[in-house]
Amino acid sequence: MRETGRxxxxxxxxxxxQPLFFLEIHAMKFCIKGAWTLVFVFCLGVLSxxxxxxxxxxxxxxxxxxxxxxxxxxxxxxxxxxxTPTGTSYEAVSDAEGRFVILNTRVGPFDxxxxxxxxxxxxxxxxxxxxxxxxxxxxxxxLATVTETIEVTGESSPIDPSRAGTADNVSRIAIEALxxxxxxxxxxxxxxxxxxxxxxNEDPLAVSVAGxxxxxxxxxxxxxxxxxxxxxxxxxxxxxxxxxQPISLDAIQELQLVVSPYDVRQGGFSGGGINAITxxxxxxxxxxGYFFGRNEDFVGDGVSRTPIAKxxxxxxxxxxxxxIIENRAFFFSNGDFERRDNPSGISVSTTGQTFGxxxxxxxxxxxxxxxxxxDPGGKEEFIRTINSDKFFxxxxxxxxxxxxxxxxxxxxxxxxxxxxxxxTSYLMPDGFYxxxxxxxxxxxxxxxxxxxxxxxxxxxxxxxxxxxxxxxxEERPFPLVxxxxxxxxxxxxxxxxxxxxxxxxxxxxxxxxxxxxxxKHTITVGTKNEFFKFRNLFIRNAFGNYRFANLDLFEQGLxxxxxxxxxxxxxxxxxxxxxxxxxxxxxxxxWRPASNFTLTMGVRxxxxxxPDRPTRNPxxxxxxxxxxxxxxxxxxxxxxxxxxxxxxxxxxEQLRGGFxxxxxxxxxxxxxxQYGNTGVEFRRLxxxxxxxxxxxxxxxxxxxxxxxxxxxxxxIDLIDPDYKYPSLMRGNLAYxxxxxxxxxxxxxxxxxxxxxxxxxxxxxxxxxxGTRTPDGRPFYTRNRVPGITDLLLLTNTDSGxxxxxxxxxxxPYKDRFFWNSSYLYGRSxxxxxxxxxxxxxxxxxxxxxGDPNEPPLxxxxxxxxHRITVSGGYDIPMPVGLTA
Length: 884
Fold this sequence. Notes:
Layout: E1 5-15, H1 25-47, E2 60-68, E3 78-83, E4 88-93, E5 99-105, E6 108-115, E7 122-129, E8 134-141, E9 150-153, E10 167-170, H2 172-177, H3 185-189, E11 195-198, E12 206-209, E13 218-221, E14 224-225, E15 252-258, E16 273-278, E17 286-295, E18 312-325, E19 329-343, E20 346-347, E21 353-354, H4 358-371, E22 383-398, E23 403-418, E24 425-427, E25 433-450, E26 453-469, E27 480-484, E28 489-492, E29 501-518, E30 521-538, E31 545-548, H5 551-556, E32 558-559, E33 561-567, E34 576-594, E35 597-609, H6 618-624, E36 636-646, E37 653-663, H7 668-676, E38 682-686, E39 695-696, E40 715-719, E41 727-738, E42 745-763, E43 766-772, E44 777-782, E45 790-797, E46 801-814, E47 817-830, H8 839-844, E48 858-859, E49 865-878
Parallel strand pairs: 2-8, 7-9, 13-16, 20-21, 24-28, 27-31, 40-45
Antiparallel strand pairs: 1-49, 2-5, 3-4, 3-6, 6-7, 10-15, 11-12, 13-14, 15-16, 17-18, 18-19, 19-22, 22-23, 23-25, 25-26, 26-29, 27-28, 29-30, 30-34, 31-33, 32-39, 33-38, 34-35, 35-36, 36-37, 37-41, 41-42, 42-45, 42-46, 43-44, 46-47, 47-48, 47-49
């Protein structure tokens, strides 16, 4: 059949009434040896026992049964599955119970044929294999009274009988059809009730999963880490601070959204996982082109009838793919370009909200230009530039019938102007900082089949470069100045966190999964090893930071507060440099003791090691008995078990569930604080604001005073010697049923999580100083250790939990139509949410009724509350060859 073009009608609605807050070497060898011993013992235990199936993070699987017309099983039947876009062929033979299993298949449509001597071949067409799911089919062969092949349009079970945990899939059809202004992974992920988009005002959206911190998620593309593992971007992806996407949505084939996967190959998170695979070429040449655009004419004037300033958002691109050699080699490529001019929302007197105080702002500008010889820009509304270029290329090669090689590269190059003026605090154009990102990601993967076993080997290299600095029009580096006006303040000069701010991340990953069928077991053993190298340059207030009580004092050059940070080493741009090597080992088994019952079990061990240590500062040892050169150690164990009980022979209803431990990386920015704030490398001057202070203003950013008399403020960050990465216990219980009308599938699911280890910050420099009237509330001073302001300890807590109940009705794509609707209600509690990258902010930005070091258990900022999500689409036929 010739495929006709399509026009999409689509719908998506989301309602959320909640506020949007948001080894020493011998020990190392022992840990690795212990992990491999565990794998070996696990395998011996199961080798002695109809096979189950397991899917990898980049593929799917096909299973089924072959019977005769009377329902008798047919052992020895040959089953051939052909991936229709590429011609890639897979083969299996039915066992003594008539069952067959084809592991590690491509994702997409298949034609599946069963052949057996004495019977007519039967061919099922258009069987859809989804990412990390099992497609189940059934053959009923007729006696060979005639030689023709029976061809029917196949249909797999609407329910995945191998699934135990909480997860959702977003198909290629849904990705192409659903509306999205940002064309982002977040917009696709939010179709799941568990993936809650969060953000405030103009902040880019992040995703909280099941009531957890957005920094606890893991993003994989083609099985490879695609996180901002350092943890600065709320989105959790490389370049997230520039508001770019890690990859063009046009290059994504399918998404899997996991919350509690009991397959131990899925790890690296204590929140949730976004697992995406990219498109490949096929035997048919194809191309796409797209353009999305809007400007100020599409935006209303608002309640104040104030016209919006210049606004533009354009995204354009295209893809091309096809065959290099028919059925053997394919290519796919994409280019995506985004250009945005975003108004900052505030001007002195023209567009957007007006700050007013124009005469005072004019005098402020005159002082800067005439007295200090510096021009910060004009009074008009600043237009932010947000640009992104993305390039993707992939090649697929069927080396032999048993070996397939995939190689792909993804490049993003982006920038973003960031600043937050308000109607009470005006920001001059030079106060907006510009952050640039460049990310390169390469993945090479080899899929191999060996009889009844398959292997997936993968190597990944990712380099991420972030540069945060001033505007291109900046005349010269200038200190940050803030001046009080008759009401409100005005600021100019380099933003204080952008004076020396660079981050380099190199990520290497080597993984291998080996899966084989043994009796009623599908056994997987594997290893996933990640190697991180970080260079973090972060010196705040490196140009000086001054505040003035009024314009007269500013003109006289006499400030009322002064802050300045500088290096005490021979390098004025001293950066924190450290490496992390995380070794992972796992063993799992999917056991099918009965035809209607599947048990998934396994254990995973992740071993983080730190070859580089922070500088040792004896001051903390004498004061609190803790060293500054501690690093995390130990093994992160993740045992898991899940079950699936099919309550009908036709896979029309099932009960599933399980529980396990899930551990993820600590955002490494939290650990970088220990490397950069030992009290040895830097000195911080912070005077505090007092109207009686008179500090001489120095407009030369490179000649700031290093001594203003008794204003030294030193922060030292420590880590508990027993600190562990975030981890939790999570379990689910669910019921799925294929409803008897409209092809709908209903699900009811309960999910519960309880912290095993989460973060907690304490300021060890606090000393009780008395109580305040009228309620007797205690207050504290920070003077336990002289000369130190904050002595911040990163440690663990087991306080915190979350639960939810969800109801979902969906209609898988069929007859040009799909539908997904869900309702979820949940609660999440924590003592500290870790919403900042800095230790001082994580500790200080927690509201407590008493001791700041012992925050109470309360509702989390990531509490999901009520969520209603509806999405769907319908394809309208169009003339051949056209798609709209």
